[in-house]
Design goal:
Elements: E1 2-4, E2 7-13, E3 21-27, E4 33-36, H1 43-52, E5 63-67, H2 73-76, H3 79-86, E6 89-93, H4 94-105, H5 108-120, H6 128-132, E7 149-151, E8 156-158, E9 163-168, E10 177-181, E11 186-190, H7 211-222, E12 229-232, H8 241-262, H9 270-275, H10 293-312, E13 316-320, E14 325-329
Parallel strand pairs: 4-5, 5-6, 6-7, 11-12
Antiparallel strand pairs: 1-2, 2-3, 3-4, 8-9, 9-10, 10-11, 13-14
């Protein structure tokens, strides 16, 4: 689908029959086309991409650059295979590039660190194995490859027809980038801003010390940009950037209030707090106990991220014991 002249969207499906898709974008240029994100490394994804690149204007061989907003499997997994097929160069933020080896190649240490983080934050011993390993199935859909080009905020990516600025927007991932096209005022937002879903911001061994604080700071900086259309990694394209940012910030304020209320009766671990919070409010609310293992892990990590921000704001305190990390209200 041509979103705007010279900019096309291809919906790349998730694997294993999961009823979701990743939006990848092709930006046409006189010096070759730019592919923004790639989808999973699966038969379904490769076929969908091939179908989207078989017409008079769009050909796989014309892709010269593959720009990755972040290295989560649904955005990065297929990049290496596309590079093999057409010779395009892969580009991503330098911080994301540094995470590839420990996330997708030698990940035993990362798994141990994740298990320890979950244990210290109150995950019961009986649940630890399934929460620790909840994301391992995704690795089969990633062919890891180091980038040919590393990017930083302010860099310009050109293809002869478009000049696209790199915006470093940490939070969802520490090296996440959005891409801004100033002439038509387009924002390729990856998973930083979505139309009807609040992006996951969780604390984990690769997240940085205060990922939610980083995320909110990134949102505030984006408010200053003049944007006509947001082209996200999932869901529909939309406008009204400031309005959507306001909605996301409101969600996080509500979540912080929920956490403060949960701490009104004394010391608790992040897991205990997460148990008392309503999740998936956009789906009418789901109790923590009814979440699947992967979603429970995300819920605990999101809770820790909020607690880290509340601690930075001096609203909660943290007490580390030999067995657990405990939080308490300061007011």
């Amino acid at each position: 689908m041509e979103i705007i002249a010279g900019v096309h969207q291809i919906k790349v499906p998730f694997p294993k029959g999961i009823p979701e898709h990743t939006n990848v974008y092709v930006v046409e240029g006189s010096e070759g086309n730019i592919l923004i994100d790639s989808g999973w490394d699966s038969t379904e994804s490769l076929w969908a991409l091939r179908e989207g690149l078989t017409n008079d204007r769009l050909k796989l061989r014309d892709i010269k650059k593959i720009v990755i907003t972040h290295i989560h499997p649904d955005h990065y997994g297929l990049a290496s295979k596309i590079k093999q097929l057409c010779g395009a160069k892969i580009a991503m933020h330098r911080i994301e590039a540094e995470l590839i080896n420990s996330r997708y190649k030698d990940f035993d240490r990362l798994l141990k660190e994740t298990e320890e983080e979950l244990r210290r934050n109150g995950v019961p011993q009986a649940e630890l194995p399934q929460l620790k390993d909840a994301s391992l199935w995704m690795n089969q859909f990633v062919t890891p490859d180091s980038p040919d080009v590393t990017l930083d905020s302010g860099d310009i990516i050109s293809n002869g027809s478009f000049e696209i600025e790199v915006l470093w927007t940490p939070g969802h991932s520490p090296g996440h980038i959005c891409l801004y096209e100033p002439t038509k005022k387009l924002l390729f937002s990856g998973d930083h801003i979505l139309y009807d879903t609040t992006p996951h911001i969780g604390f984990h061994p690769q997240s940085g010390d205060n990922p939610l604080g980083d995320y909110i700071s990134s949102l505030e900086k984006l408010k200053r940009r003049s944007v006509n259309f947001i082209l996200p990694g999932h869901g529909p394209a939309f406008n009204g950037l400031k309005l959507r940012i306001g909605g996301i910030l409101y969600h996080h304020e509500q979540r912080k209030r929920n956490i403060m209320n949960a701490l009104s009766d004394g010391l608790k671990t992040a897991y205990q707090i997460a148990e008392g919070i309503p999740w998936m409010p956009d789906q009418g609310g789901v109790a923590f106990r009814d979440l699947a293992s992967w979603d429970r892990r995300l819920a605990v990590m999101e809770t820790i991220a909020h607690l880290k921000l509340l601690a930075a704001e001096d609203k909660v305190g943290n007490i580390d014991t030999d067995s657990a990390s405990l939080y308490l209200r300061k007011d």
